Amino acid sequence: MVYCDANTWAIGFRQRVEASCGDCDDTALNALELLCGKKDGTYVKSISPHNGFWGDWSDAVRCPGRNNFLNGVSFKIEESQEKGDDTAVNDGKFACTRSSEIVASNGTPWGSWKSMKNCPRSTAICGFSLKIENVQHENDDTAANGAKFDCCAL
């Protein structure tokens, strides 16, 4: 797990995604970075447990204004393709405490959105970990396979 500093919470995110590459081995979501900030919305630092192996980083997407933090998360996940090309996690979106959902611009089309998981009332996302598959070399790579988020009192 990686955490925002004391008295800071996640105010936005970026994601590293490998775009569809045709007949090659697609991996989709490779890494996630949370932007940590103070209650006044001031950015403090970014946290990421792993930088991923492939793909490009999206622009940062933030909850607008003051006292507006990430407090829910949902992922677009592709089910196992059996003998096909697996990707696992393809895209992420977050709910903000004082506004609607925010989404990066570089997610891939495969899979379906899972239900939003929210922090308890009066808390916001303050830390997370990613489950990343190691490079498979000659076999099928998937990159991000899961995540855990921690919520801290506001």
Brief descriptors of the model:
mainly beta, Vitelline Membrane Outer Layer Protein I, subunit A, five-stranded antiparallel sheet, 0% helix, 154 residues
* Helix fraction bin: under 10%
Weakly predicted, low-confidence segments:
none
Which structural class do the helices and strands define?
Answer: mainly beta
CATH class membership: Mainly Beta
Helices, by number, come to: 0
Identify the overall geometry: elongated
Number of domains: 1
CATH superfamily: Vitelline membrane outer layer protein I (VOMI)
End-to-end C-alpha gap: 19 Å
CATH topological fold name:
Vitelline Membrane Outer Layer Protein I, subunit A
What does this structure look like?
It holds the Pfam family VOMI. One of its GO terms (cellular component) is extracellular space. InterPro entries: VOMI, VOMI_sf. It is a single chain. The chain is mainly beta and about 150 residues long. It has one domain: Vitelline membrane outer layer protein I (VOMI) (Vitelline Membrane Outer Layer Protein I, subunit A, Aligned Prism), CATH 2.100.10. The chain is about 0% helix and about 50% strand. It is built from no helices and 13 strands. The strands form 3 sheets. Strands 2, 3, 4, 5 and 6 form a 5-stranded antiparallel beta sheet that branches. Strands 7, 8, 9, 10 and 11 form a 5-stranded antiparallel beta sheet that branches. The radius of gyration is 15 Å and the shape is elongated.
